[in-house]
Design brief:
Bound molecules: tryptophan, zinc ion
Distance between the termini: 64 Å
Number of domains: 2
Strand order of the largest sheet: 6-5-9-3-2-13-16-15
CATH superfamily of the largest domain: tricorn interacting facor f3 domain
Strand content: 25-35%
Radius of gyration: 23 Å
CATH topology of the largest domain: Immunoglobulin-like
CATH class of the largest domain: Mainly Beta
Largest sheet: 8 strands, mixed
Shape: globular
Length: 466
Amino acid sequence: MVTGRRARAWPAALLAAASLTAAGAAPALASAQFAPGADGLGDPFFPHAGNGGYEVAHYDLRLDYRPDGARLEARARIDANATQDLSAFDLDYRGPRIRSVRVDGRRAAYGRTGQELVITPDAGLPAGSRFEVVVRYSGRPRQIVDPDGGIEGWVRTDDGAFVVGEPQGSPTWFPCNDYPTDKATYAFRITVPRRLEAIANGSLIERRRRGRTSVWRWRERSPMASYLATATIGQFRLERSRFGGLESVVAVDPRERKASRGPLSKIPAMTRLFESLFGPYPFDETGAIVDHAPKVGYALETQTRPIYDRAPGQPTVAHELAHQWFGDSVSVASWPEIWLNEGFATWAEWRWAEHRGGRSTARAFRHMLAVPADQDRYWDPPPGAVPDPSKLFADSVYVRGAMALEALRQRIGDDAFYATMRDWTQGHAYGNASIEQFTALAEARSGQDLDSLFATWLDQPGKPAV
Ligand code: TRP
Ligand code: ZN
């Protein structure tokens, strides 16, 4: 059975059930307070991203993909906990046709409206209870176009798929609670033709030939935001190694191998530097996925194993590695706070250059400060006041965002600055935090009133007058 469009207000059926209960007739629902979970978490940019009434603990994804024909045959098993008495709940989903939905082993009614997959189990789910959702789906997954014109989601390549989800692409390939505040562990079991590789997050559990296919199993044991998941498919050479207590898997498209070797070889040294500045690397796995997907035009900090659309340079490798602390372990509490990711990762690029004997962060700051005010893409929007989702990845968020951190360092000095950074990564590890929490922490560690510094660098429009 497929339900119709879902109203956002209380559905009439539920109110009817309540009055039936009062009249003593058998209710359709366990009790009147059972209500549908919200269809979004109200993010200022993506109000329908995420859902209310439950939290996901674990995703178990089985994907079978054939690049010829671009067909995905999939099953997602989701372990979740109800946080309210639920009569129905949503998952975010932008993928191919749903074949069936089960909740706790029993067929559930479902419907699709916009990016919402609305699921109505045959019995209500009490607050505090654990439940299991199994969704089967198949067909051609698609990429989506973001408000800034960028593409994401399941992006087809000439030999497979480049799979990225920031900020809203993950529902193109699995149903999920697609918001950075709902982190979960993941298991992936990906079947591909045997000439191809399938690379996901976390540790490689098994790769096994099965007839004309190979089966790849990966597991991410640290909590992960859905936008950081990947299941990238194509021809890759794998290099496994260990350093500093970390397992590394580097997967490189043979066409990008030569150009990526140098920059990727710096990962251990970059990790050591960032650990000394920001605190311990947050995960037990590391590496990279270097694909050949030139139409994408950006890299993404997929958790434990950043993905590149081509051979990256050293600055980009440093940037995506720094995101493991800033973005992946400590994640934004809402999308407009993206400065906490991009400003920090860009500052870390500058810091790596300084460490290598190149330009210092202070000189990088002075260099950018010489950019005239009329080159407004570096200055607007201010990184702490991103006005709309088309500006999430604007140059100003990256560059002026890094300048904001450097201005902070110069004002409060290295000791207070790095104490702030380490407290930040330790205090919010595997969680979420806001810009306001960061500025408050910097004030506490430095003992200074930093309101005007942050207003100047994060909030005021136009080139800061300093
Ligand atoms: N977070 C990525 C980085 O800085 C960039 C990114 C993700 C992006 N999604 C995007 C850039 C969409 C433009 C459009 O490493
Ligand atoms: Zn970034």
